[in-house]
Design a protein that fits this description.
By secondary structure, the chain is α/β, with parallel strands linked by helices. It is 31% helix and 25% strand.
Length: 304
């Protein structure tokens, strides 16, 4: 079933070229089905790439999904043309009276900053507070997960000595949770971050459940028991080439960066990329849409 995005969005042609069903809003309205309304708070500098990545993993569900993209009104994007933001994005003031089946809060390359020093932190806090009442289930990714854990539960992030960078093995620890239904006992996921969270602090919070973790890089997926809040430390939405782009970008800038672990064959940047997380990424987002959004939210969102 289709992902519903504007025909003019760059992701539309990309997804059609990959034989992924993307539908215009006009065609969707003609069908007697209410699409799931998903708010995407896109904090990534490479907004067009992130739009495509998220649309791709959400399009693998047998459900209509309509995306609304949100950008920060209190932050000026330096990597995306203003014309693109004006055409395809909304601000919080434009959506604050709406209700959504789901929300995705992306990562952001600002981990080394204290949360309160992020220029749009106050605006983001308003959005996270909004999600408690106007969104049924929220997925928070990487820095977005750290920000939400801090805002909702007071759980802080901690700097690591060496960037967590590469593709790592993870083990499902709550296999009967719907979010990881169908997962292999061991699966792969990409990470790219300079900070982490502490397991003992997660275990001390009674509202949170650890669903998957890694011996090398720690907790990967957490959620509340009812699935209203989901936290993902990592980037399962990443494309095959995303970590390579980050690595070679930093090399060209002269940044001291380690080769992403378990990503290039034989850990050699001259060799092929081992793309081995795509199926679990699709399954994760399909499970979220099916078990925590589609089967739980009312047909009339105003009754939330």
């Amino acid at each position: 079933m289709p992902i519903i995005i504007p025909n003019e969005l760059p992701a539309f042609d990309t997804l059609q070229g990959e034989n992924i069903f993307a539908m215009s809003k006009a065609r969707a309205v003609a069908q007697d089905i209410r699409p799931l309304k998903i708010l995407v708070v896109n904090l990534m500098p490479t907004k067009i790439s992130t739009e495509t990545q998220l649309a791709r993993v959400l399009a693998n569900s047998p459900l209509q999904v309509e995306l609304t993209f949100l950008c920060m009104d209190t932050h000026e994007s330096k990597n995306t043309d203003k014309s693109h933001l004006d055409e395809f994005y909304r601000t919080f003031d434009e959506v604050k009276n709406q209700r959504f089946d789901g929300m995705i809060l992306t990562g952001a390359p600002i981990e080394t900053l204290p949360f309160e020093e992020v220029d749009y932190w106050k605006e983001l806090c308003k959005i996270m507070e909004f999600s408690k009442t106007n969104v049924y289930s929220s997925v928070h990714i990487c820095w977005g997960a750290q920000a939400a854990l801090y805002y909702h539960y007071g759980i802080n992030k901690y700097h690591v000595d060496k960037k967590i960078f590469g593709v790592f093995e993870h083990k499902v620890v709550r296999p009967y949770n719907p979010l990881v239904r169908g997962f292999d006992e061991v699966f792969y996921a990409p990470h790219s971050r300079y900070t982490t969270i502490k397991k003992n602090e997660i275990l001390a919070e009674p509202a949170l459940r650890i669903l998957a973790e890694s011996e090398e890089v720690g907790i990967h997926i957490m959620a509340t028991e009812n699935g209203r809040q989901i936290f993902i430390m990592g980037h399962q939405e990443y494309d095959k080439e995303t970590l390579a782009s980050e690595y070679f970008r930093d090399i060209n800038k002269g940044t001291d960066i380690n080769i992403p672990c378990n990503y290039f064959k034989d850990d050699d940047p001259e060799k092929e990329i081992l793309f081995r997380w795509r199926s679990h990424a699709s399954l994760l987002f399909c499970n979220w849409l099916n078990y925590y959004v589609y089967q739980e939210t009312p047909f009339d969102l105003d009754s939330l």
